Amino acid sequence: MVGLFVLAVLVRPQAPLLPTGSTAPSIQLRSTSGRLLNANAAAAHHALIVEFIEASCVTCQQKAPVICTDSVAFSRDLFVMIGAGGESAQPLTDFAARYLPRTCAVTLLVDPMLQATHAYQAAVVPTVYIVDAQGRIAYSSVAASGIDGVAPALQKIDG
């Protein structure tokens, strides 16, 4: 009897992220309430934290409280979540109501044409970037570990 052993190796390719130190693309999108926001300008001399999500993403749902905690701890910085699935405002509003505590200082932005999503090469969700006060990419990562890395990265950036 010949035994057949199958070895499955899962290869998880790293998402192509914008390089650290490169100039961050501008983000000008509408919030779920319809307000037009130029996120880079609104951050004005502070860090801009950008998380690309999809309302149906389980990891995004599970890690939403972490980003909220960070938004309160680093309140001088600007936190935005961008719908990377081309969702309308309603699914993102529902996401916020279900997964973001009321104390959360995160603005949800709608990206129906995926302009920011493509500019930031957000091929998987969650993808997170920190743009420093000079408008350069200071941190980028994907998945749950990327969200967990935001606070330590901000501690280094904010001093």
Q: For this structure, what is the CATH homologous superfamily? A: Glutaredoxin
Count of the domains: 1
Report on the biggest sheet: 7 strands, mixed
CATH fold description: Glutaredoxin
CATH architecture: 3-Layer(aba) Sandwich
The general outline is globular
- Largest sheet, order of strands side by side? 2-1-5-4-3-6-7
What is the number of strand segments?
Answer: 7
Task: Label this structure with key terms.
about 160 residues; alpha/beta; Glutaredoxin; 6 helices; 7 strands; disordered N terminus
Give your account of this protein's structure.
- This protein has helices at 39-43, 58-73, 89-99, 115-119, 143-148, 150-158; strands spanning 28-31, 36-38, 48-53, 78-83, 106-110, 127-131, 137-142.
- It is of the alpha/beta class.
- The chain has a single domain (28-158), classed as Glutaredoxin (3-Layer(aba) Sandwich), CATH 3.40.30.
- The chain has a seven-stranded mixed beta sheet with strand order 2-1-5-4-3-6-7.
- The radius of gyration is 17 Å and the shape is globular.
- The chain starts with 27 loop residues before the first strand and ends with a helix.
Question: How do you describe this structure in short?
Answer:
This protein is an alpha/beta fold and 159 residues long.
What is the topological layout?
Layout: E1 28-31, E2 36-38, H1 39-43, E3 48-53, H2 58-73, E4 78-83, H3 89-99, E5 106-110, H4 115-119, E6 127-131, E7 137-142, H5 143-148, H6 150-158
Parallel strand pairs: 3-4, 4-5
Antiparallel strand pairs: 1-2, 1-5, 3-6, 6-7
